[in-house]
Amino acid sequence: MADFLESEAEESGLDSEEDEQPSKRKKVKSKVAVQSDDEDEDDEDDEERLREELKDLIDDAPIEESGSDGEDSDASVGPKKRKKSDDELDDRLEEEDYDLIEENLGVKVARNKFKRLRRLEDDDSDNEGADSQLEREVIAESLFVGGSDEQDDENQSESAAPREMEYDDENEEESDADDFIVDDDGKPIKKKARRKPIFTDASLQEGQDIFGVDFDYDEFEKYGEEDYEDEEDDDEYLEYDEEEDGERRRQKKGKAKRPSKKSIFEIYEPSELKRSHFTDLDNEIRKTDVPERMQIREVPITAVEEGSTELEDEAEWIYKQAFLKQPVSKADSQEARERSRRGSSTVVKIRQALDFMRNQTLEVPFIAFYRKEYVQPELSINDLWKVYKYDAKWCQLKQRKENLLKLLENMREFQLDKVMQNPDAPIPDNMRLIKDEDIERLKNVQTPEELRDVHTHFLLYYSNDLPEMQKLQRAKEKKIELEERKRAAREEAERNGEDPEEAAAAVEAAEPEEEEQSEVRYAVRSGPYELCRKAGLEPLAKQFGLTPEQFAENVRDNYQRHEVEQPPVPPSEAAAPYVGQIGSAEEILRRAVYMCAVQLAREPLLRATLRDALRERATISVRPTPRGMKEIDENHACYSIKYLKKKPVRDLTGDQFLKLTMAVEDKLLEMSISEQIEGNTGPSYLEELKQLYQKDEFAATVQAWNELRTEAVTIALTKIVMPELRRELNAVLLQESKEYVLKCCRRRLYDWLKVAPYESRVSDDDDEEWDASNGLRVLSIAYVPDRQHSAFACLVAAGSEVVDHLRLPHLLYRRNSYDALERTNKEADMTALRRFILRKKPHVVVIGGESREALSIKEDVSGCIQQLIEDEQFPRIPIEIADNTISKIYSNSIRGRNDFREYPDILRQAICQARLLQDPLMEISQLCGPDEEILCLRYHPLQDQIAKEDLMEGIELEFVNRVNEVGVDVNEAILTGRGTELLQFVCGLGPRKAQALIKLFKQTNQKLENRTQLVTVCHMGPKVFINCSGFIKIDTSSLGDSTEAYIEVLDGSRVHPETYEWARKMAVDALEYEDEDANPAGALEEILEAPERLKDLDLDAFAEELERQGFGNKSITLYDIRAELNSRYKDLRVSYRSPTPEELFDMLTKESPDSFYVGKMVLATVVGITHRKPQREMLDQANPVRNDETGLWECPFCHKNDFPELSEVWNHFDAGACPGQATGVRIRLDNGLSGYIHIKNLSDRHVADPTERVRIGQTVHCRILKIDVERFSVDCSSKTSDLLDKNNEWRPPKDPYYDQEAEDKDVRKDAEAKQTKERLQYVKRVIVHPAFHNISFAEAEKLMENMAQGEVIVRPSSKGSDHLTVTWKVAEGICQHIDVREEGKENAFSLGRSLWIQGSEFEDLDEIIARHVTPMAGHARDLIAYKYYKSLGGMRDKAEEFLKEEKSKNPNKIHYVISAAKNHPGRFLLSYLPRSRCTHEYVSVTPDGYKFRQRMFDSLGGLLKWFKEHFRDPPPSGTPVQRTPAMRTPHGMTSLYHTPAAHTPAFHTPAHTPGPAYINTPYTPSAQTPYMTPFATTPRQPDFLTPAVPRHKPVAMPVQIPVYTEPADWQKAAEDWVRLGGHRSMRDTPATPRSSEGSMSTPRQSSRTPRMDSRSTPRHELSRTPRHEGRSTPHGHSHSGRSSRAHSVRSTPHTNTSPRSMSLGDATPLYDEN
User: What pLDDT score was predicted for residue 1563?
Assistant: First the structure.
């Protein structure tokens, strides 16, 4: 085909050169001119190009815009080509163009006219018909093919090739795709195909509205076969003149020529046609007289045969399945309440509803509105939809049951035939006969699950016989058919007097030989069960004692209804006959057990019983995955259910299961349905079932068989049945959750649609301009919260007509802005808006609720209106703020852009807001086009989890309910172009029928004047008419005198045409006319003027009379007619009301109660600090405080402390410069809300100045304590206790089955894993040193195993890039890790210029190894080499055991032993046995020697000598002894030398302390520490120490105070302190000059405020550490508790109850060194 098209293009180029003309010709329109491919070649010269252009003016051969069939390609040479081109030229050129061409050519051009276009042209203009067709093509292409004006030339200058290809494709589509027939020249032979129906979609409709052109199905159908035939006859020969030589030629056409005409099938893709309902099926639906929704239902509506009881059975089934049957979960509590209210009378109502639907084809809305007597009060309209839905399920189930029943009966017949082949033979063991019970069981099936069980049971036993059965069945049918033909032949022969037998034989002889028919192929079963069956093990499986049916009955009744029949032989003997075929006896029995298990598992009754048990007792357990533990925080939907332990599925509510399923799909949770379910009497249901399949005897044979039976039951349940049922249960729970979400979506849509049009509240009765009876004028304002974009106001009048709009670029500016230009621009906008309101006089102003700026805009508009009230005597116009969710969707929708192409999005949004106020139902329905943009609205957070089709169906049902409640005015819909979408929801109609109805009235340009015309004009069938007529309303008053047709006033009411006579009778009776005087029409008009006359009618008597006459019960209908005559088509929707403060809050913040609630943790930004300004009397009583250290004065309110004189403080007060005391922090949330944190809620500790805790611009976490919806503000708390919320006061409440124990376990495990990970983490460093390795803690320890004692490894520290760890080997299996702090680093990877260990400074690593590690290693080596050293790992129990053993050998000697302590690297345990009790003390190895009992020793000999002399002395308090177990020692108190890197304390001796002084360890409370604070300011111990020191007065302590240079017992220290100095008055203490504090190195001491001085511990100030063994501390450790804390990173944070410090004396730790 492609080659053919290319060759044609080339030939046309050659021909055009022959036909070129020397004279210059005028170029025709670009729509007509199509350039040939030769024009695009680069190698042509200008002359050729000119010739091409000239040629194109005449030779239009390639133009086949819409319908050239490609059959004339052979005519593309010579004169044939000319004829084609001139013929098509006639279609496209106007009269002037023809004249010009004839003038240039000098010949007469035939002007062909086509009769088939006459229908669309005027009588006096023949050529306009062709032009209208051309216009039709242009519109279609521009609207649907996507061409723009700029592309016209390009689109229309294509060659004929693609056009022919399109046409050919269309012909292919119409004929069979495989039947592409061509003639000798390779051209398609066209068949006259019946044209497909053509209708327009929304975009083509727009073209029709603009240009008045219709793509009409009828028109195309008329252009079908007969027109094309006429055209062939008329145009068989066409005569043309050649250009200049006058030579005349006659050319016979290959096929009929017709003007270029492109059908809608060529323009659109098949999917587009289907989407817009233009297919043959759609046309069939349009024509069929059945409600459209009933036709397109998945299971079409079918009538019930007369005399059948199907309706009764179906009503009973629907009542049980839809209204009685409990769902598995409690997804919808409201439905459960409704279920309990319904009685058995519901069945009768359901049956009646089914009769209306199936036999009378009445749709649900018709039944709900016009057959109320038969369904109310039991069935609401939503219940009727449920009946409609379950009717489809019933029909589907019924059809499947019938198919399976036919299969069973055929198999039964097949078995009978097989058995009767040899009646005397016994029935084979492997044949399971189909019994009546099987047939009955199938007939009793109630659910699809049960039907599936029966089907799988059938396949288990009979699948192998299916092929043979089907083959015999076909042969039998063929035989019956032959006999029938022979019988007919005999009868015919007898009538003709011929021999009947000969005729029969002739028929038999004429029977064709049996051909090999294609058999239905069945799946080849080759599973384990099939292998066992083929091995013939079925008889062995039957010896287990119970058939599957018997076991299922036992389970159902929960007792051994059928006793187990015990075989007399043991299992091994029973299996003996089969041994040798497939294996040993054990293998045979294993297979028989499996076979028995499968048979049990496929038993329908057992599955049904287990299914019920599982749904009743199943539980689910939920655990988060590692990813889920991180991502599921308290704001996640699954937070309250992320840990569940055995939650019954019965207790699942709402959309819980759907949320869990989504989290499982996202790999956040792991969910499991319990494998074990609770039994009837015991904990395990499985164990109970095993007992029902056992023989209660103790014989060995019985026990052996019982074991096999138990195994069979276990396999059947755990491996086959229960996994399948759990999957089934999972699907059911998921479906119930989705149905709940769908119901929520429908409820949300209902809340939008139920609102009635806004009613004017403007009370100005004197002025007709303000009369809203002719329609509501709405002024709508829309904006985006961005000053770069202009806001827009528009006025929408009656009929949703956009009258005018106004651009407001500065609406969001503030009137009181500091910028004068802003104020000017704002005032200009307000003036323009005020004039707009004055000119347009709206009844209401509506503002889009985009953000909080809507409130300020409302104030501005209110100010404008107030000014108009004062200046212009304007009425007070109400101002509403409306939700802009729907208007934003509309403004961005295809429908919105098509409606208002030139308008910006914000203006379209304003228009939609106004129309929503005028009629919400009408406006929202605009999104219900073929594009299904209604799905873009957000109904529920989980709506995306529902299938698009299900959601669309639910939305459609809600629209159907509301639209039929309100009614549709067809005339208004056609007039305004709006409301056409509503018509598709009218009862009985649908998109296709509504589309046809609208098109009909548009084409005929007439109105629907009465409901009767639906039949007479629209040719509507009786069934559709009955359904829809009551819901199509006609505004009879607007028709007036404009029509001559009879106007029925009841056509404007909800009264159905079938009850018009009763309405007239009621009117006549109410007016008490005599029969002869009665004029029903006049009576109706009179009663409509005075409807109160109807009150006196006895409608009950009228209803009885109607029932007696055979009209049925019509009591409710009569009351409805009376109500309708009182107020025709009264709007039943809920009146519009302004949003409540809560609704306004949610609308403007875009939050909901589910997303924003009290207790939620949010992120907020600090925007300011609030202060409470002091009152005058407070200022007069103020008491400024002077800081003695700085000499400056401090304001008692704002705590500003830089006033040199007291007078300046008073000036500070008088000038009003004091902001006052800080009261809290102002914050702003992410959603724009402002918030406030009171100072007491800022922290758990007391906060005087908020700036100590937060700074402006900082982001903080906080919890919402209170939401003020009217002020749009929240109160928050940032207390740690509130954020952690350990008591669960604020977090969302957890599920009753929440597994807190599992969560705590996981949290602990996670914390431990984090610690381990932190320990292993380090930053790789670039350090060149032989001892340095980039390895972790664990790798270092492993490397040390093969190194000698004393070897050193330097490695990165897990504390960060400014730390290193030195690891050295103390003894075998013991390594000490020393923390080294670096200072003066060039970058994170280099080595610091100075290295610090404790208070000692080193220049480089070599110095550390030489000065620090090597001496320690040498001292350790001496201890290891000592004769009494043992490798006991420092374990006390081992040491005791060793000493007692030595003591027993030599009782007179005091034995001692030394061992390296593994738990405290760098220490050695010295254990000795002076008497009967062992004593243990530690010896620490330091670079300077050995430390023992807080003394230093240079040598091992000196240490042991002193020990032997003083071992009887009591150890100093705090020295580790036997009574102090190591495990109770806080880990933070151990020496830095003995702590692994991950546990190395982060506190250090301050940098000013030279040398490795004693460890300065601040107090860290632990679980074993009593909370007691030994300093004067602790209120609980008032006289524990000396009285409080007077403010600002430092106190020097006497030198005689005992100084505890080593860790000491704090109680003993306190007692000594009280004894020595506590009784002395502080005033007696000689004042120490401030200069004496020069030895104190803590800078905070000197700058501390007086109040803080009172917290220091005075006794520490001048204490000195005496020398020990030549070691001195030059700077006394005189830091107060607070100053020492300042150097401690790991010290306990201050809380209201924790002590400030527990250090005494020289700030040594209060605990011993272990």
Answer: 35
